[in-house]
Design a protein that fits this description.
44% of the residues lie in helices and 15% in strands. By secondary structure, the protein is of the alpha+beta class. Strands 1, 2, 3, 4 and 5 form a 5-stranded antiparallel β-sheet that branches. Helix 1 crosses helix 6 (123-145), helix 2 (31-43) runs antiparallel to helix 6 and helix 3 (61-76) packs antiparallel against helix 4.
Length: 204
């Protein structure tokens, strides 16, 4: 954009964040370091009333493999056989990554806020969803800054029960998104943008 200093660390980080679908396992960072990076992004994402209702589960190794096998098996039951090959290929591209972050909402905390602050009852689920989206973005940008590709997927609610059973997830955690991540094995194409004047109005 004209007149904007793109050397800003934050803007550079945002520019690095892309939907990467060709993932690999050529990641030099140890799993523990990646976990700390994701934990920091989750911890420091703001939320209304400082509710902190977003939750995350990080899957590495065989746990990551198991997740995408669950997705594969679940969709194979409902996608027509003559169309499943493309679906299976897409799922395999996510399974090829180094790991996956599962994002959840802690619904009982949201319900408690609704009881404590009835005036804002209808707003808390909206605010929680907004904070969860910010959490996903923060994790995505943090991974991109570390040179790791990712994308955001939504196979919920189809896989919810199987995921909760497999990893003993509390019943009050509602699955909202899945973020497979790994080495960037193919650079995403150019991204198109609407004219910014259609999205941002400046009054002065």
């Amino acid at each position: 954009m004209k007149g904007i200093n793109m050397s800003s660390t934050f803007i550079e980080m945002m520019l690095k964040r892309r939907s990467v679908y060709h993932l690999g396992r050529n990641v030099s960072l140890p799993e523990a370091s990646l976990a700390r990076l994701i934990e920091a992004a989750v911890a420091h994402t703001p939320s209304a009333f400082n509710a902190q209702t977003a939750r995350a589960v990080i899957l590495f190794g065989s746990h990551n493999d198991r997740l995408w096998q669950i997705v594969h098996d679940t969709l194979q039951k409902i996608v027509p056989a003559d169309k499943f090959a493309a679906t299976a290929e897409k799922i395999a591209s996510f399974a090829a990554g180094f790991g996956t972050v599962l994002f959840f909402e802690k619904t009982d905390d949201i319900e408690e806020l609704q009881r404590k602050f009835p005036l804002y009852r209808q707003n808390f689920p909206v605010w929680a969803a907004q904070a969860n989206g910010m959490t996903q973005f923060a994790v995505w940008c943090a991974l991109a800054e570390a040179g790791i590709g990712a994308s955001l997927q939504h196979y919920n609610p189809l896989i919810d029960e199987a995921v909760k059973k497999e990893w003993q997830i509390p019943s009050s955690w509602a699955l909202s998104a899945q973020m497979p991540f790994g080495s960037v094995e193919a650079t995403p194409g150019d991204k198109t943008f609407l004219p910014i004047s259609e999205r941002v109005l400046v009054k002065k």
